[in-house]
Target: Unconventional myosin-Vb
Amino acid sequence: LLRLLEAQLQDQRREHEEELEALKNQVDELQEEMEKQHQAFLQTLQLSPEVQVEFGLQQEITRLTNENLDLKELLEKLEKNERKLKKQLKIYMKRVQDFESDMAYIPAERRWHERSMQTAVQRKEKDFQGMLEYHKEDEPLLIRNLIT
Model:
């Protein structure tokens, strides 16, 4: 037990050291970036007011362009996800229609008998809690019954 705890402690220490190293590298990179921005700011202050305004506008245009590209990328991802979800919806709608058409062929008396049997079975199994096993093709029916 003691060896297991020592091994876990060593693993955690190693992970912590790796995380600490990554954070130190990130801080170094941010300090370098800050130094570059500071130098650019000092150079900008030495320029004439007209050039400062032009430089500021160029920087804002660059920032907005980058933001626009990020938003376009996000929009493309969302559109792709929307298309995927629409395809899934069509598949599920088809399954529901198939199920409903199958139910239309079952005689009304048999459907009533099946409903009463389902109700009786549900009452008997009401006391059980846990996982439910079902066939993949029964999924739309299961979801529909859960909702209703």
Observations:
- The chain is about 85% helix and 0% strand.
- Residues 120-125 have pLDDT under 50 and may be disordered.
- The helical segments are 2-45, 49-105, 108-125, 139-147.
